[in-house]
Amino acid sequence: MKTYKYLLLLIGISILGCSDLEEAPVGLLAPEGFFNSVADLQTAVNGTYGHMTDEDFWGRKMSLPLMLRSDMVAIGDPTTSTRRIEHDEFNVPTDNGMISGYWNRVYQIIAAANQAIAGAELIGVADELKNPVVAQAYFARAFAYFHLVRQFGDIPYLDAPVTDAAAAGAISKTSAADVYTNIIADLGFAKIWLPNTQDARSIPAKSAAHSYLALVYLTMGDYPKAYAEAKGVIDNEGIYSLGLEPDFQDLFDATTIDGSKEPIFALDFNGFRDGDLGQDYAPALTGLRNDEQYGLGGGWSVGVPSLEVYNTWDDGDYRKSVSLDDTGVFNGVVQPYTVFKESGASGRGVNRPHIAKYTRHTGVTANGNGRASQNNYSMIRYAEVLLIAAEALNEVTPGTTEAEGYVNRVRKRARDGALGSTPSAFPADVSGLSKDDFRTMVLEDRKWELAFEFKRWYDIARRRMGPEVFSASGLEGAKPGFDENQDYLYPLPSDELARNPNLLPNNPNY
């Protein structure tokens, strides 16, 4: 039988639960024979989230380009694969391997969500019983499309299972505006039907849909609605069981993060590796090559902060020491970052501080350069919601103490430091800024608060900051490959265009 590969849209779905979800491999499913109960629906929904920990999605192919395209992280190992270097240098061809693998996987997530949503119609129980479960699929579909539309712009949009692969392979693009409309509708359904809390943050609750609506509106530049949604989350802080984690380090400690109130939606790696499913590549990609200090066998020194990130980040900011390692251990000797390459990298590294968020506390089962970690990756956390509210309110009503207060809550933790330590004077509370200065400040605060959490590129793109941050005065110095008429979007994969000419033309200048 011919195998159609258009978007990897599956008529059946492959189910594999992820951490804190039921694990039930059941192969390819015929929906009429499988969806008989709410438990069957939950199994299908679990598979949707299982895809998210694959190497093609958060394991490596989506997360690494987001980091490299920012102004904070550059290639450390000059011998790493060309397809990674192309993102760092903004020289991405249409056949870039990081994009093609990711594109297929994200549509597989969407296909699984569509199958679960359709399957819910086959279950003869009250909406009150099945909708809280199917709302998880609506959230997953919105989450997947939100990444796609920010990266590619106009894209194929499918909201039902594919029963005719040939027809699916001839689909045209949907405008980004219409994709956003559909994302908002899906999140609206999820916001209504998801419960206020879940057993784990890897299962979306009402707060996740509510918070993502705020972020979607912020990305669209609809600041009144972004503020309203973010304020709605803040007003329901107690009901949603949200709060700022007292010690910033605990947000990046796999042994403590499960008890934190700050993550709102997270991808949870649980220490197993099944091929490329469940492998956490962030510790390997960001860790210091041959470093002995965490017992992981070191990392690969691929994504490494620019030296100016370290030099311009105030030492009084506790987040700096949590986020960066400026020493390593080689042959039992502690060495400064100025000799990293000579001490242990064997020519495959760089003398710059490395990211510590994903290597310092990976959990007890971590091995293979940290790829079998128990890390949780916060896709959105409460501190970001506070900063969304501040940024959006400043655009609507500048100069309010309310907007200042949201930023100051986040800043207070940064200067308080580790629990029991003496607070520093930095970063000081903000007060009395003009609208423009406040906007600049809050984008800077997002940069430091969410450093290396795969957010910065999206901020650069939505605020069109490329010419500024990739200039000679930027953190990485001049990046001549950046073209503001091209590089805010990825190219559509060339193999997809070859299979389906209806997706032509490619994005501008590709």
UniProtKB/TrEMBL annotation:
The keyword Transmembrane helix does not apply. InterPro entries: SusD-like_N (IPR033985), SusD_RagB_dom (IPR012944), TPR-like_helical_dom_sf (IPR011990). It holds the Pfam family SusD-like_3. Residues 60-218 form the SusD-like N-terminal domain. It is found in: Cell outer membrane. Keywords: Cell outer membrane, Membrane, Signal. Residues 353-510 form the RagB/SusD domain. Belongs to the SusD family. This is RagB/SusD family nutrient uptake outer membrane protein. It comes from Algibacter agarivorans.
